[in-house]
Amino acid sequence: MSETAVKTGHPKGLWVLFGTEMWERFNFYGMRAILTLFLVNSLMMKEEEASLIYGGFLGLCYLTPMLGGFIADRFFGNRNCILLGGLMMAIGQFLLFTSASVFGTNISLANTLMWSALGIIIFGNGFFKPNISSMVGSLYPKQEKTKLDTAFTIFYMGINLGAFLGQTICPYLGDEVVNGVQNVHAFKWGFLAASIAMLIGTLVFYVLKNKYVVTPEGKPLGGLPKYNDTADYEEGESQSAVFSTKSLIGAVVAFVILFFAFRFLLDGDNFIKTIIYPIIYASGLTLAGLIVSDSSLTKVERDRIFVIYIVGFFIIFFWAAFEQAGSSLTFIAANQTDRTFMFGWQMPASMVQVFNGIFVFGFALPFSILWDKLRANGREPLSTVKQSIGLGLIALSYFIIAYNVKDLGNSGLLAIKWLILLYLIQTFAELCLSPIGLSLVGKLSPKRFASLLFGVFFLSNAAGYALSGTLGSIMPATGDKFLKAEKLGIDLQGVLDKTITPTTEQLSILEVNQISPTNPVFAGFEIHNLFEFFMVFVVLTGVAALILFALTPVIKKMMHGVR
Fold first, then answer.
1. How far, rounded to the nearest angstrom, does the alpha carbon of residue 8 sit from its chain's CA centroid?
2. Burial of residue 290 (number of CB atoms within 10 Å: 0-12, 13-18, 19+)
């Protein structure tokens, strides 16, 4: 490769990280596609409980990067953490395979294995995720940081190619319906495929890291922190954080106060909702405060870090809406959607979300080219403008789906084309927001906080996923619940409308059949139907889009020249 190509193109290390992340996302999204269906159909959980577990699991997956980023920055380095995280996630998926293999004979053991698997995957993801994202930013020297929006968009293609493969292969193997009846024993094959994919990704990185994941001078990136030298830092940049004892004690106190505050606000008796979610929210706010207490921070560094926090706050609402794909949208696809596709083929419910991966892979490069051309002409929008557009598109997608479910009633089926359109619009939103957010963190982070700030950024994802679980749990009864209740001799609509008082026996029957006798409530408002449910997302993301756009002039000043 010529010297000019080296300066103008992207380093080969980007493609190694692309491939590694692709296999990891195959593993993660493939498992995610079938997880809630496995919980409901095999482990006999209610949809509400499965949604809360799903949201808590995803939230913790984006909480632990804080720990993984800290350990990488201080002790192990990016490379070792990626390898450790990859192996842990492969083991976790294999335990899910085992859980899905034994539940028929030992439901207690299956539940124990399921919880153990999710825990191992959570910590494995914590080691893996912030470090591979941090290494993408480290591939580019200071004079080439303008390439990061494009680099992260390319990297995002790897994410979504993996998502496409995982959301196709795992549901194909694991989500099997025979004569209208779910094969509850097939899920194990989807989990096994996810485990194998993670092993492949870890091996790819191990074999190629020393040759390609290097600086332009050939120095390995992401090694042990003790081997970093002054050349790895920007001119005048401090090489280590300085936290006072007072700041550390204050962080602990703040965490405890915030935990109990969120614990009070999130009432109920569900462990995920009342313990895990408060931990996620409190951790994010506490860590954000601790970082800006570092006495070595300059004014410019502190302003830029606050920009990361502002963007992170609004991203919460994006992921809260976007991650309905694996919970409420999957249940709607399964229970109240005509999934007849080409040639009369019935697409598995868990496979419908594959369209997001297809669309991202198809449109990521055009979006990357668009940003490059706009930048070359001096017309590229500020990162926060791109993100506000993304939030607005999410609101639009849910408004369209809300309009189309409005008159379905209890027996009507949503045409699959509307879910496909939703995923298309949400893909455009994702490309305006998610890779741009990753790029922004890479451009704004002081090096001594690089992985840790990626961890903090992922905490906003964690909070969004936790909120997605809460919002997913307020989905009202879909048509299948009314039909099932009718066959059981119960007028579910009358029960929900409180015009009929169910007997104790009827309540017991509803409980056994995983049907709630009450409408869900959100922010004091009762959710009566799917239209009202989807309008919640329209309002949340629409308002967030408008506020973020209005803040753009202030944010631009705080970025101090970074776009």
1. 32
2. buried
How far is the C-alpha of 224 from the C-alpha of 208, rounded, in Å? 18
Q: How far is 454 from 473, CA to CA, in rounded Å?
A: 29
Give yes or no for a contact between 336 and 483, defined as CB atoms under 8 angstroms apart. Answer: no
- The CB density around residue 226, as the number of other CB atoms within 10 Å, is 8
Alpha carbon of residue 203 to chain centroid:
24
Amino acid identity of 262?
A: F
Domain spans, the chain? 11-215+250-292+300-476+519-558, 477-518
Structure tokens at 346: 């019935």
> How far apart (Å, rounded) are the C-alpha atoms in residues 467 and 462?
9
DSSP-derived letter for residue 274 is I
Reduced to 3 states (helix: H, G, I; strand: E, B; else coil), residue 105 is coil
Domain 11-215+250-292+300-476+519-558 has CATH 1.20.1250.20: yes
pLDDT along the chain (563 residues), means of 10: 48 84 91 90 87 85 78 79 93 96 94 95 88 76 66 76 88 84 91 95 89 74 60 48 75 91 80 85 82 80 87 90 87 87 80 84 81 80 88 96 85 88 93 78 75 74 84 87 88 90 89 87 87 94 95 89 72
Positive or negative torsion for Cα 265, 266, 269, 272: negative
- Looking up tokens 């963007």 gives 311
Per DSSP (E only), the strands in 272-365 are: 337-338
Name the residue among 342, 289, 333 with its Cα closest to residue 456.
289
CA atoms of 245 and 249, how far apart (whole Å): 6
Which among 159, 157, 207 is positioned nearest to 26, based on CA atoms? Answer: 159
